[in-house]
Amino acid sequence: MTQKDKLTLESRLVQIGVGRDEQTGAISFPIYPSATYRHPAVGESTGYDYTRSGNPTRQVLEEGLAELEGGSRGLAFSSGMAALTTLFLHFSSGDHLIVSEDLYGGTYRVLDQVFEKFGFSASYVDTTCIEAIAAALTEQTKAVLVETPGNPLLGVADIKAIASLCRSRDLLFIVDNTFLTPILQRPLELGADIVIHSATKYLGGHNDLCSGVLVAREAELGERLYFLQNTTGAVLPPKECWLLIRSLKTLSLRMERHCESALQVARWLQQQPKVTAVYYPGLEDHPGYELSQTQATGFGGMLSFRVETAEQACRVLEKLQLISFAESLGGVESLMTLPAVQTHADIPEAERLRLGVCESLLRLSVGIESVEDIIADLEQALS
Ligand SMILES: Cc1ncc(COP(=O)(O)O)c(C=O)c1O
């Protein structure tokens, strides 16, 4: 075993691409914008033929992503939705998918308004309850897709238990690991088959990059996903690959700060008379608190909270000064959204209300500004 094999995840992240450009010794692996590659002779290749099929910068990133999640193959896409869409193309007409009901509205939209037309259906269930998943299984079920913690209510699903159920029924188990990242939660090691990310969020981390990731545990499945990626073509361009490599190097530091600050903000919010509920898995009274500690090493930087009325929620958003009222999450800058009218607007109203995603619910992505400043901004916005 070499010293490199013994490195911690944090060190491996920092070292992505270092020493890979043998010609120059560049520490920051270069961007290769070339769309195509010259062949040495007929029937010979440098290993690169055409950039959609393979690109040196993307390769360094994809190998880094596979290592980060503990999988055999990583694939980088032009957005999280491109990653999910490519993944859904693995399924056929007649197949059925079980999906978390507490999930990103865009995932719901692509399943409901695009794939449904092709006869690929989905059931939305409370995946924090293993019995609910088991009850939704049909002869046609081919996979279970879980977002954990959920979005926006932060419910926690039992990854090991779902993996075991999926194994016993020969189902693919897919985890959207966007909220926690492999620094805090490693679904493939807990039995999932595929991890998906909106790398626009924590992996990118700076609100300046749109990208998505798939990582497969087994090589054969990875090969199938690569076939779909190359065939349908929503690859991440080389400059964005470089930017994502650059961002990954600070992921563990950023996650540490996001977690610390989110916990402090959640505890502070709990004390505020105008706040009627706080959803954060790191709070002792959160239903997923115990489970989180068995399958993750941190609670993440995302939390949601409820105020008394929809009007009050609007006032909070309008009064924010440091925190931006904006979609997205996971960047260094704190962002707040109103899920009912933004990220989750495509979920039918009755369904949203049943879940509790109403217009008095606010979602906060706690950034890495000083926590005192974040709390001060919340204090003046709630006043
Ligand atoms: C949990 C989750 N998964 C997937 C996506 C889709 O990713 P993207 O916006 O990069 O297409 C999002 C976007 O907000 C998300 O929050």
How is the topology of this model organized?
Layout: H1 9-14, H2 56-69, E1 73-77, H3 80-88, E2 96-100, H4 105-113, E3 121-125, H5 130-136, E4 141-147, H6 159-168, E5 172-176, H7 181-184, E6 194-198, E7 212-216, H8 219-232, H9 238-248, H10 251-270, E8 275-279, H11 289-295, E9 302-307, H12 310-319, E10 324-325, E11 335-337, H13 349-355, E12 361-365, H14 371-382
Parallel strand pairs: 2-3, 2-4, 4-5, 5-6, 10-11
Antiparallel strand pairs: 1-7, 6-7, 8-9, 9-12, 11-12
Helix pairs in contact: 2-9, 3-4, 12-14
The structure holds pyridoxal-5'-phosphate.
The site of pyridoxal-5'-phosphate has 14 residues, from helix 3 and helix 4.
Count of discrete domains: 2
Rounded Rg:
21 Å
Bound molecule types: pyridoxal-5'-phosphate
Mean pLDDT: 96
Enumerate how many helices there are, as a single number: 14
Poorly predicted regions are none
CATH homologous superfamily name of the largest domain? Type I PLP-dependent aspartate aminotransferase-like (Major domain)
Shape: globular
Order of helices and strands: HHEHEHEHEHEHEEHHHEHEHEEHEH
Task: Outline the structure in words.
- The chain has 383 residues and is of the alpha/beta class.
- Helices cover 37% and strands 15% of the residues.
- The chain has 14 helices and twelve strands.
- The protein has helices at 9-14, 56-69, 80-88, 105-113, 130-136, 159-168, 181-184, 219-232, 238-248, 251-270, 289-295, 310-319, 349-355, 371-382, and strands at residues 73-77, 96-100, 121-125, 141-147, 172-176, 194-198, 212-216, 275-279, 302-307, 324-325, 335-337, 361-365.
- The strands form two sheets. It has a seven-stranded mixed β-sheet, sandwiched between helices.
- The relative contact order is 0.13.
- Bound molecules: pyridoxal-5'-phosphate (PLP).
- Pyridoxal-5'-phosphate binds at residues 79-81, 104, 106-107, 147, 151, 176, 178, 198, 200, 210, 212.
